[in-house]
Design goal:
This protein is mostly helical. It is built from seven helices and no strands. The two termini are 34 Å apart.
């Protein structure tokens, strides 16, 4: 599953790296000025970024559907009580913001899997298969091409 890092934390890490590791190594006054400009932009941008809602909305919808299918499989099979608990938790999950809902549903799905140490039966696995495969593709689609070739040029 996707591990989401709050944007503020990501920007804070970039600011810290630029300030503590990059600036001390930059000898050129002009380049140092550019680094300070980037620091200023990042610092001012930090609290003005709106999260991209679409990926979280898609993940939340897909996870909800998987949880409903899992609850149906559990109700029809080995554990109707777990199915009822899953449905109650699903009803209590936050509706907004999308990132919070996706995170809560992801934790719920993880908990439902972990709660069955003996493993999931075929109906339960089938209930989750489509979501997990699609989510893996969605997670990979967010990755950008590597800049290692440019980075290695120095």
């Amino acid at each position: 599953m996707t591990v989401l890092i709050p944007l503020e934390r990501l920007i804070d890490g970039c600011l810290q790296t630029l300030r503590e590791e990059v600036l001390p190594e930059v000898a050129s006054r002009a380049v140092r000025g550019r680094v300070w400009a980037v620091l200023d932009v990042l610092h001012n941008l930090r609290d003005r970024i709106e999260e991209n809602r679409a990926p979280a909305e898609i993940e939340a919808q897909s996870t909800e559907e998987a949880l409903l299918r899992l609850a149906a499989a559990l109700r029809a099979g080995p554990d109707p009580e777990a199915a009822a608990g899953l449905l109650r938790a699903l009803a209590e999950a936050p509706a907004e913001p999308p990132a919070a809902r996706a995170s809560a549903l992801r934790a719920m799905l993880t908990g439902a899997i972990a709660a069955r140490p003996q493993g999931l039966g075929e109906p339960e696995r089938e209930a989750l298969r489509a979501h997990l495969a699609a989510q893996a593709v969605r997670d990979l689609a967010l990755l950008k091409p590597s800049l290692l070739a440019e980075i290695s040029k120095g």
